[in-house]
Structures are given as structure tokens and as C-alpha cells.
Specification:
68% helix, two-stranded antiparallel ribbon, globular, single chain, 18 helices
């Protein structure tokens, strides 16, 4: 055992030295020492993180947006099967970030999780490229073998994405010290540039990468994303000594499970009349554990039972530390309450992504049945998503620099309007986008049935623009909402909830497509979404989605009126 002098010397080494500017948030450098401001963090580190984000978006979206075309034209899948496969894979890509967030917070830390995720993602992209390269190397190769290799690579990529998505934004935010006013302002700029870079990477991938895939073949078109992500990995690792790292505080999901188990075990225990008797650590002990205390609230009282101190708890406390699966502190209980309050809103937001999932599936299939020639150029149907990305890129600075200040003067709110109002407006936009797609499909189908010239693919532009406006409002709004409402110790996991919303919406899209195919393709009928859209009724599908979107908006408004924010508690 080390002597007291050795312990004091070790503690002294970790204390900020007089005359040196250390961070005030407890962040460390790569060697585990307190982080120096002039050597770590800030924009010197974030430029590499943003570079990694750009490469990741360029690579990931370069595969995602044209995947349905590859499945239908190369692997000869039906429209419904291709749309379901894309929706399911996309949903998995947004489900794995929750796993990545838990691993990062509990075991590896954000940096190591991102490095491992990048490596797995590169390997997955190489597998996908191999599936397209095999027909060039082997004269006889069966389609099932190609499909197996492709989907093995795609789901490896999904796990790689799980390590990157939840950590890139939060790791970038870690590079700014909230205790320093100038760095705190820079953090806001980082979020703006993060979203801007994300959309720039998406625009380039949906135009340049899709063009390469359509004109130079899928082997090259799928190999380039793997090379780009490799560059992103190099960019991330190159600045490892410039990063600031946060200490791991254990799994927040474990803390939530402990409250549920403790409350269930004490379901027959009566709550005290004085809630001040509930178990809570002293203020100084909470600070030592790195957890900010949350005051008790009066709703969802069942979970308060987890903090009731029983006679058996008092007896056990005399001989050993309290069992966290039997007795939880009030702050821990309140963390769970915050999550439970957000669940109805989370469920309503998920349908927004059921609508946006059509961008990569039924919107592309609709475009493939239209006239794709504009002047003398052939426009790949998947490239129409560029309208969505350009809309978001254009409106982000306008929203931040023009709308927010004007709305702030009218409402007195720092952000102009509330996050929930912003999200609701985005839900309305995606319902309008579905209605616009239905009207375009009606026009296209009538022209085809009358033997007229095929409808120009540019008629799809308004529906993509409306989705872009919805992305600006709902996607950024929900990230802001989940982050601002999250308990201090659960910021990363609550950020991952936004990605889980996208996963739920994509899985729901796949389920709806399956149900529509089952219900409409009966009795020899081709159904609403057959391989030849001229024989179907894709317009009815879009009208159904628009109607469901309106019902979802009503449900969301009802949940908003019942929601109790942290500020109101």
C-alpha cells in the first residue's frame, strides 16, 4: 500500500498548477493528466472531428441513397422487397448508436468507441464493394452469394455507424469548456458547423457518388466510400494528442434499471408523507461522484418507492454500502422520471422518420418511373435528394441569423420558439411532403395511362424540398430537445434517443410497406406498389402516409400539452 506521502504527491500531480490554464470541467488529456487549454481542445481539435464527420457522411450516404437502385437493378429484387430491405438496414443503422452510447459511457470512452466503429465500418464497406466486384472476377456467381456478401457488409457497417454516430457530436462538444465563456460560445458554433458539414457531405454523396455508381459501375462506386471512411479514420487518429477526454461515469442505463428493480421490489411499501425523508446523497458526495443533484418532483410517484429507506436498508447500511438494486437516491429516480415523460413525445417524433424513410425507397422508385432526362443530362433518381440537402444547407444559416432573432423579439425566448413547436412544424412539413408526392404520382400515372410523354423527374423537387424543411425543424429540434431535457449524467444516451427515433421510424416504414403489400396484392391484383408502378396505386400509399402524418401531428400536440419540462418541475 502506498504511503500517505506518495498519495499526496500523486494528488498534487493531478491538481492544476499555478500559472497554467487548465480546463475547469475535469477533462483529461490522452495521458490522463488534467487538460491544458492552450494544448488541447477547442477548434484545434474540432477541425479534425468535423473532418471525420465529413468523410463519414460522404461514405455512408454514398451507399445509402442509391442502395435501392442497386438492389432492384443488379440483384433484381422487387420494389417492395428493395424498399423493405433498405428501410430495415437504415433502421438498424440508427438503432446501433444506442448500443454504442452505452459502450462509450460504460467501458471504452467516446474516442476508442469511434476508432473501433470506423475500423468495422471500413471493413463493412469493403465487403459491400466485394459483392459488386465478384461478377467481374468470376464468370459464374449466383445472386444469393452476392446478396449474402452485400448484407454482411451492410450490417457490419451498421455496427460501425453505432460507434460513430452517438460519439462524434458529443466528443466534439467535450472539446469546449463550459466554465470558459468564450469556449462556451464556440460550442454553439461547433453544433452549427457540425450540421452544416453533415449536409455538405450528404449533398456531395448524392450527386457525385451516385453519378459514379451510375456511370462507372458499382464496384468503383462502393469502393470509394470505403476509401473515404479510411481517410476519416486517419483524420480522427491524427489529432489524438490534441483531444480532451471525459472520465467514464458508468452506464446510465444501469442506473435506470436499478430504479425500476428497486421500485418493483418495494411495490407494497408506503411512501412517507414527507418526501424529504427519501434517500439522497449529501451535496458534497454527489459532486465527488460527478453527478449533479436533481430535485424531487411529485408525479410518477411509483418510482419514488425506490428511494424509500426501509428497516432492512438501515440494517444493511450498518455493515456494508447500500445495495443500488434495493435503494436508489432521489436524483437517480428523477433521471428515470425525465425519460418516462419524454417517451410519448419520442413515439410521435418516430413517425416523422417513417415519412423521411420514403426518400430512399418509394421516392426513388417513383423517380425511376419518370423521365430522368433534363435537357441533355440523365439525372439518377437518387440524386433528387440533393434538393432536400440544399434546402437544409440554405435554411440553417437563415434560420439561425434571421428567423431566431426576429422570433426572439416577439416571444422573448432565447431560441425564438420552443423546441417542441419547432418539432411540430417539422411534422407538418413531412405530411405535406407525402401529399405533394401523392399529387405528383397521380400526374405521372395519368400521363402513363394516356400514352403521353413521361412526366419529368423535376416534378419531384417540391416533395424533397418539403422534407428538407422538415429535417431542419424536427431533426435539429429533437436533438436540442433531448439534450436540453436530459439529466446531466445521461446526455450521451439521450442524444442517442434521437437516433433511436430514426430507427423506430424506419422499422415502422418497413412494417407499413409489408402490410400494404399484404392487404392490396390479393386476388390476382398487383397491389399499390407493384414492380411496374403503372399497374399500381402508389398515389394511394402516399395519401395514406399523409393522413397518418396528420393524425400523428394531432397526437403530438396532445402530448405537448401534457408534457412537464424540467424547468416546470
Amino acid at each position: 500500500m502506498a504511503s500517505s506521502e506518495q498519495q499526496e504527491h500523486a494528488v498534487a500531480l493531478l491538481q492544476p498548477k499555478v500559472g497554467e490554464a487548465y480546463t475547469t470541467d475535469g477533462s483529461l488529456d490522452i495521458d490522463g493528466n488534467p487538460a491544458l487549454k492552450h494544448r488541447t481542445g477547442g477548434w484545434r481539435a474540432c477541425r479534425f472531428i468535423i473532418g471525420t464527420e465529413f468523410c463519414y457522411c460522404l461514405a455512408y450516404y454514398g451507399i445509402m441513397y442509391n442502395l435501392v437502385t442497386y438492389l432492384t437493378t443488379v440483384l433484381h429484387q422487387s420494389n417492395v422487397a428493395a424498399a423493405k430491405n433498405v428501410s430495415t438496414w437504415q433502421a438498424t443503422c440508427f438503432l446501433t448508436p444506442l448500443v454504442g452510447a452505452v459502450v462509450a459511457d460504460s467501458y471504452w470512452g467516446r474516442y476508442r468507441t469511434m476508432v473501433v466503429g470506423c475500423c468495422v465500418g471500413v471493413a463493412g464497406m469493403l465487403m459491400a464493394a466485394l459483392s459488386a466486384l465478384l461478377p467481374l472476377l468470376m464468370e459464374e456467381i449466383s445472386t444469393p452469394v452476392q446478396e449474402f456478401i452485400l448484407f454482411l457488409g451492410l450490417y457490419m457497417l451498421a455496427f460501425g455507424v453505432g460507434g460513430l454516430r452517438p460519439c462524434l457530436m458529443s466528443f466534439g462538444a467535450d472539446q469546449f469548456d463550459d466554465g470558459d465563456p468564450s469556449e462556451r460560445m464556440s460550442k454553439g458554433s461547433f453544433f452549427n458547423w457540425y450540421m452544416f458539414t453533415l449536409n455538405c457531405g450528404s449533398v456531395i454523396s448524392t450527386s457525385g457518388m451516385v453519378w459514379v455508381q451510375d456511370h462507372y459501375g458499382w464496384a468503383l462506386g462502393l469502393a470509394i466510400p470505403a476509401m473515404v471512411l479510411s481517410v476519416g479514420l486517419s483524420c480522427l487518429v491524427a489529432a489524438s494528442r490534441a483531444y480532451r477526454f471525459q472520465r467514464n461515469r458508468g452506464s446510465p442505463l444501469t442506473r435506470v434499471c436499478q430504479v425500476v428493480v428497486a421500485a418493483v421490489c418495494k411495490f407494497n411499501v408506503a411512501l412517507p408523507a414527507d418526501m424529504a425523508l427519501l434517500y439522497e446523497l449529501p451535496e458534497d458526495a454527489s459532486v465527488m461522484k460527478g453527478v449533479q443533484r436533481i430535485e424531487h418532483t411529485s408525479d410518477l410517484r411509483f418510482f419514488d418507492k425506490a428511494a424509500v429507506v426501509t428497516a432492512s436498508d438501515e440494517e444493511a447500511a450498518g455493515t456494508a454500502p447500500c445495495n443500488p438494486w434495493r435503494l436508489c437516491v432521489v436524483t437517480q429516480v428523477e433521471e428515470l422520471k425525465i425519460l418516462v415523460r419524454m417517451l410519448p413525445l419520442w413515439a410521435c417524433i418516430a413517425f416523422f422518420y417513417t415519412g423521411t424513410a420514403q426518400v430512399n425507397s418509394t421516392f426513388v422508385e417513383q423517380g425511376m418511373a419518370m423521365n430522368t432526362h433534363v435537357v441533355s443530362l440523365r439525372v439518377p433518381p437518387a440524386s433528387l435528394v440533393t434538393f432536400q440537402m440544399l434546402t437544409t444547407i440554405t435554411l440553417i444559416p437563415l434560420y439561425d441569423r434571421a428567423f431566431v432573432p426576429a422570433a426572439r423579439r416577439l416571444t422573448g425566448r432565447e431560441k425564438g420558439i420552443s423546441e417542441l413547436l419547432r418539432i411540430g412544424a417539422g411534422l407538418a412539413m413531412v405530411a405535406l411532403a407525402m401529399a405533394a408526392a401523392a399529387m405528383v404520382e397521380t400526374k405521372r400515372a395519368r400521363a402513363a395511362q394516356a400514352g403521353m410523354e413521361p412526366t419529368s423527374i423535376l416534378w419531384q423537387a417540391p416533395q424533397f424540398v418539403l422534407v428538407g424543411v422538415g429535417e431542419l425543424l424536427t431533426t435539429i429540434g429533437q436533438l436540442d430537445f433531448f439534450y436540453s431535457q436530459a439529466p446531466p449524467a445521461m446526455k450521451t444516451v439521450c442524444t442517442a434517443l434521437g437516433f433511436l427515433d430514426i430507427a423506430a421510424g424506419s422499422y415502422l416504414s418497413s412494417l407499413i410497406l409489408t402490410a400494404v403489400s399484404w392487404a392490396t396484392a390479393t386476388g390476382g391484383q398487383p397491389g399499390w406498389i407493384p414492380d411496374d408502378l403503372n399497374e399500381g396505386h402508389l398515389d394511394r400509399f402516399f395519401w395514406m402516409m399523409a393522413g397518418l402524418g396528420c393524425l400523428n401531428l394531432v397526437a403530438f400536440a396532445s402530448c405537448v400539452m401534457r408534457y412537464k419540462s424540467r424547468k416546470d418541475c
